[in-house]
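Continuing from the previous page of notes. For each protein in this section, the sequence appears first, followed by its structure tokens. Read the first protein now.
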Amino acid sequence: MTPWNVLVLFCAISAVSGWYSHPRARDGYSLPDLISTDEKFEAYQQRQDAAVRNPIEAPYRIPNYIVPFHYGLWLRTGIHEGNLTFDGRADLYFRVTNPVRTIYVHSRGLNLINTELYMLPGDDLDGDRVLLERPRYTINQNREFIIFSSQRILVPTESYILHVEYSAELRTDDDGIYVSTYMNENRVRRHLIATQFQAISARTAFPCFDEPALKATFNLQIVHAEEYSAVSNTPVMEIEDYEEDGFQDYVTTKFERTPRMSPYLLAFLVSDFKYIAEGNQRVFTRPNAINQTEYALASGLRTLQAMDEYLGIPYTTHMSKLDQAAIPDFDAGAMENWGLCKYRESLLLFDPAVTTYRTRTWIDTIISHEYIHQWFGNKITNEWWSYLWLNEGFATLYEYYGAHLAAPEMEYFELFTLDVTQWALDADSREGTRPMSFSNGATFYDIWDLFDSIAYSKAGAVLNMFRGVLGDEVWRLMSSVYLSDNELEAVNPNDLIAAMEEASKDMDTLPEGVSMREFVESWTEQTGYPVLEVRRNYRTDEIILSQDRFFNNKVVNNDPTEWIVPYNVVNQSAADFEFLNWDWLTERAVRLSTNVPDDRWIMVNKLQTGFYRVNYDVQNWYLIIDALIANWASVHRYNRAQLLDDAFHLARANRLDMEVFLDLMVYLQNEVEYPAWTAASPIISYFYNRLRGTPHYEHFQHFIYSLLEHVYGTLSIDSVSEDETNLHKFLKQTVSTWACRIENEDCLNRTHTLLSETVDRRGLVHPDISAVTYCFGLRGSTEREFVYVYDVLKTSDNQALRTLLIDSLGCSDDRTELRAYLYTAVGGEIQVNYTPAERRRVLNAVIAGSREGVDVMIDFLVDLYDYVLLYLGQGMLNSLVGSIASKTNNEEELERLEHLLGSLGSSIPPAVANSARATAARNMAWTSSREGLIVTSFLESFSNNEQRKK
């Protein structure tokens, strides 16, 4: 699933019954087929018996003695009429590993009507079943269990079927089995059923053994109106008329049997959606967006082919088709259901007239993320959610690397270090972080908390480090071993370690005395990561290399954590950044000799492949800085981005003098490539947020203008040429955003002129420069431009464009326009077809757009906070107060914050008000802090020096 962290269901199948054909799915299955082999069943028993469960999890987990192997599912819905209830029947096929009387089944919100327990003689699923009893049961809502009690002892030598009839309501929170809606071309609201079962919400649709390791096959039938169609993981086997009083013009769609898979991967869609198709792939969406599906289909085709070739294990080994679906309401973002990937509309639909290069990048990379899950996640699956990183780490790595394999000209893997590694380094430096392998319980929210930057970004970065150590060819071999040895099974880190050992057995990879397990677990079982301290002794030509856990807010030299660290060294005399030759730091500190001249820099961690930060002695830092100022291209672009990111965070943690970092930033005056500017952007934002509204802001503006002046002059910010690369467009947006934000006159004039000309011709700005043009073109614009952009928003049904325009309208600095805009979010006189998420985004956009927006929001909340509570809830009001506090930097702004808090009174919790005051106090104290004084002193000195040069 895609978070930064997160699909299912479709249409148009009734006319194409049997569109796909998979011979084996039509054949009968025997029990050995369904539970792999008897040997594997015994191995499964041993593995389950050996599993040590977290005591906090145990009350919510299926007992080890239950072994499911098949489900027969039947659902009936009247969703075409907006009916929010459904009926279901489920046959749960299982065995037990020791004599028992009690069977635990997961259930959430299901109303049981009838239950029966059968024995299944022989090994034929379609054989005659023998009714044993109608078992008694109790329901434990807190643990989400139905606990069945049998009068007879169930024994390991037999197979059983638990038959359950039930009814339930569709959910409305985008989780489990839920209802979604859209407006068709006639402005009529249409309903559909979608599913999102990860992590433990399959139990909302049918009673089940809802754990990832409890794999089984599924036979699904859905009864629905003939005007709708149903789509699921596997192809349709047949569609037949449904005959029962009260259900005229209904049909039953029957699907082919699935491979063995986890319950959370089951997916279906019941809707009036349309689709386009090529080969064994289809893309589904609402009928009025079908013309936006061609790009996703083409991307899916090339991505699947690239992954087939790279892994050497064809997708069609177990699945004959792969569908994608754009769901109007899909909180998860995207989901990898086997054979039926689901996406939020803005992450799949592509309209060349309005879709930006960023959205196209998201579409390609997220398709790659979900497609690689068909192997890492579906074919093999994390044994329990504590090992979620085994699914999501691989998906995060191949989100970029797989997209690169499919479309190398787009240079998607160039984004990995910036989007993944540096993001993860920031998140994992906090005191409250966790190890990659980790569990704190088995409830819905305990598990949901694991879908975080550690499971995704850190895991992806660490796996990329492992890949760098092994080399890509050995990594490919490892992947093949890992997938083949665990085919259709659940895995834990031991299986990955075994595959890494097997693939690298003929290599001299690790240091002497270090096992693959020790290396891997030093990164997966421990919290945080190290900073490597590189200290040169220029008199003795020695280096002291040490490791220490890095925290973002303090220096701790007595933390006992140690890692087995792969590192490499490059120096100014032989600046080869491409060859990744590895050495190892296996203890706290080592002394190394070097023949690098005293006037030449050394650098550690080529291409930022290792997951750690690096600090140097001050002299080496200035050797690097001087070299960059003399020739910025003398250091690899990844490492220039690394130097900025590492130095900033080291300075903030008091491991490096902040002035050294600021001197490093000066080299950006000549930098013209995307990676370094992307690394610099959040740093500039950090200083902007603390200096805006203070007497020092003018010096800050001057400093950033000086850094931007050269690169800005190389860019055409109001036009797009055909030969611009994807990365050039990223660079252009990053640089022009900051140029306009610091009120560069040329930038503001160009964006305003382009927007005005666009309004004159009643057109749209080119999508690849639209974000900056719409946002900053509205600064100082007339009402005409604002109304025009607003009208485009109202009439657009492209979710990605709507999001961009919502954010852009918040950039206006006209208070009357902004206040009217806020009214639309809470159902004022101007009615807009916002989704609930869009209403929240409008309010956040106004606060994020400008200080004028913050002031307008304060006045708006003083007058209408009760409307915000009514339409958007307490959480939204609390969040808005926190956002306003974060943008409070001076006494006047503090007075306005206090006025707001006083007006809200008891409408917000005291803790929220206290937190807001504390945030504002920290902001206002920053300029007089040690860090603030160093920064403001540097900025003043820099400005004075620049003035003297002129």
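Done with the first. The second protein uses the same format. Note its length before scrolling.
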Amino acid sequence: MARSSGVGVEIWCIENLQLVPVPRSSHGKFFSGSAYIILNTVLLKSGSPEHDIHYWLGKDAKEVDSALASDKALELDEALGSHTVQYREVQGQETEKFLSYFKPCIIPIEGMFSSGPGHVNTETYQVTLLTCKGDRAVHVKEVPFTRTSLNHNDVFILDTASKIFLFSGCNSTIQERAKALEVVEYIKENKHGGKCEVAAIDDGKFVGDPDVGEFWSLFGGYAPIPRDLASAVPEQPDISTVKLFWITTQGKLCQIETDNLSKEVLNSNKCYMLDCGAELFIWMGRSTSITERKTAISAVEDFVRSQGKSVGTHITFLTEGSETALFRSYFDRWPQKVEPKLYEEGRGKVAAIFKQSGYDVKELPEEDCQPCIDCSGTLKVWRVNADEVSLIPVAEQMTFYSGDCYIVQYTYAGLEREENLVYAWLGCRSALEDKADAISHMDAIVHSTKGNPSVAQIVEGREPEQFFSITQKLIIFKGGMSSRYKRSTAEKGIPDETFDGTKTALFRVQGKSLNNMQAIQVDQVSSSLNSSYCYILKTQTSVFTWAGNLSSARDQDLVDRMLDLINVCISHFLTDLVLIPAFAQLMHLPFHLQPTWQPILVREGSEPEHLWNAVGGKGEYPREKEIARFTEDPHLFTCVSTEGDFKVKEIFNFSQEDLTTEDVLVLDCHSEIYVWIGRHSNIGSKQEAFTIGLKFLETDTLIEGLSLETPIYVVTEAYEPPLFTRFFDWDSSKANMIGNSFERKLAILNGRAKKMEAPLGGSWKAYSMETTPNSYRSRSVGPNGVARSISPASSVLGSRLKSSDNRRFSSPPPIPTKLFSGSSPDLGDTAKGPPAPSINTTPQVHESQDGPNLNIYPYERLKVVSSDPVTGIDVTRRETYLSDEEFQDVFKMTRSAFYQLPKWRRNKLKMSLNLF
């Protein structure tokens, strides 16, 4: 079969024992008499594509078509390098991942798929009754149009020619009703052209409402719905009952008796079945042939039938190396995946392409290096000491101690109001009691702060980049000022390492720029060195600056600047001088203060004996290039904690719509996590939210090796900072609505959304609205009392936050479904606009979505390597010079769809097409 042509969803249907591509305008429309193959391709931030293959079997599909779909899915996997995950989808029992491609739902249609022209019968409107199940991914099923189909547990949609009725069983949840309204909206738009009435009917309420009377009249009049019989709750699979089978080349299943499962049990030359009860996994060794794999799949399908398992039993097919987190969770000590170096290699290739174009580029700018909030705001810092917190003088805010804990409040200008971000910074050598008190004190500060600040718990050594962007210049000394730290060192009989200006000290210097740099005091031993960094070594008689062979010119420049700052600190320690005048000069360029010391510059490999003596002698240290880990694709989870039981469930293809006000969600970005608290959730404090974040880290659902020291942010609904909203295509009006999720969606559907908007600045829960003292509210005054340097984000913040470039989806946006024959074409086909002028004559003017008017040129002349290259163009935006027709032909998507992708994903696509 044909290989994938790009990112997104591609669908084929079995017709006359042949694979026929399904046009994009028909995506989401599935016929119950047919079998389909669905390929979803995502370009990860690592630079590699991720493929998921689903084959969907209609309830009336022929057995031969179903078998062919299974075989073709396996062949497609082989064509894609045997790196895909394959899912068997049965009508009515689809996985949530599959349904996420076609939000809000799929509604199977009776009959069979036909690639020929269809006939639409518009003489009479067929009244249908649908049942909706699910509070995230919705399973929609047509049921007989009779009163006996209704029950108290589910939500139903009655679709008539002039009106759509939503009937909510009294036992259904608010989230289920809200999701059903999304289905109502799509039916209204796609089947009624947006022109019909919508009525919401509550189970048990039938007096005084004409809509209720009209609804029941369609069933022949009102009559009570029988009480539902108690339904058996499916038990969760017990890991002790999980069974592993080896599948022979003849298709025989042989159970493997083992006390615990480990990866070592799996042989690359064999196929296995893992029976988890309601779900089955087929693991296929990398050395097995496609014939062996087909035999294994047939054997498992026979096993399902012979064991009397449900026809909807989920079956997932995995090739060695592509194991899902759920599969790996059944094994003990599954080794962590080794991160590919593809990302860094790709960056190097792009740099080489720029050089070919005449640009002197050593390396590409680091991704996401620009802060996503305005970094020219104001800073307040408190040091925690047991039951007390003391506000640190402005001039000393840039010095922390590893044995202490601090609370940092940052106030900055948001798009619509003044925003606050509060951190609890926990020193790696601080006392446990101080860490607990820091969280408690932070909660008190939040209570007394205007609005509803976002809060974060961070541990020394695991600080998020945004923290360094707002502190701008930071020195972290060993030791501490806390009484608990002092008492702890005395009780343990260990020396107090608190830096006082007289001791030998070694500092590692790091940072992104002069407004984002840090000096971290490390153990003065040779093993603390690293060829990727620069260091400052201060002895009692001299000062050395040590430049690693793999450090950059920028790193060496930061050393010079940081040396001046450390010099002022030491002068303060020794003379107890007031720091404000000196820091007022040093915190901002240019640096006027002359250093006390004359540093000795040392290159790695030419160290004097005196330097080695100061660090305890020459020894081994890391000498290989430290490669920064690329940003992980984020994942969104729902979290439910009841009576000690903590459960999480992933939301695939997430969007802002998935932030349901009744829920608690966790956005997992690997290097940091965000706990989002809905207004109508049962979470009453930020401390409780931190507990949920820690439980999530302990659970490590994706088996990604999350550390318990991973930074945890807590954000509340309607007060989401740009740090959080950058991962979504954000609509602030939706974020500011009152009412529960059902009331909000009903208001939007009925055109009353404006009436549901809450006034800006309203509080969450019962938090105080006390204001911050005016002396700390200036938007341009920094922590030293003078103007802070303006962040690059401040001038472009408004436009960047409204741009879809900031979205970070774990997969492409869901396809707007057209569920019914005769519906209008999908937006992807109409967004192209009118045809562009011919490109064979003088270049025409073209309006780009990414900038001003541009001329149009043919693709062959715009490629990086071209025999007749165009001159005088912006080489970073080559794609904008293509006509709309050629753009779609080259990128396999419309221009508007392309610009909806995050910027990093656009750049990856342009790389693959020689346009970047």
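What the second structure shows: The mean pLDDT is 80. The two ends are 30 Å apart (CA to CA). We return to this in next week's lecture.
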